[in-house]
Task: structure prediction
Amino acid sequence: MKKSPLILFTQINTNKKNSRRFVKKIKKAFTLIEILLAVFVLEIGLLGIVTFYSYAIQVTKIARNETTAANLASGILDNELSAAYDNLT
Result:
């Protein structure tokens, strides 16, 4: 049985409408995927910054302790060098 041209035209138009809707849905979903990907990349960057920041804090503490130790040693050495030669034992 042959289909009439009107039925075929209606089916083609319906398919076009459905395909347009499908494309719109894909575009919306693609936008959502883009947003999720951007958030993921941003999160990785922020994680790197936080890791670097905690490392910088540790290095700063170590440097402060080394500076304090060097200053104390320098003070002790200055006291010993300024003492009279006869007082050394």
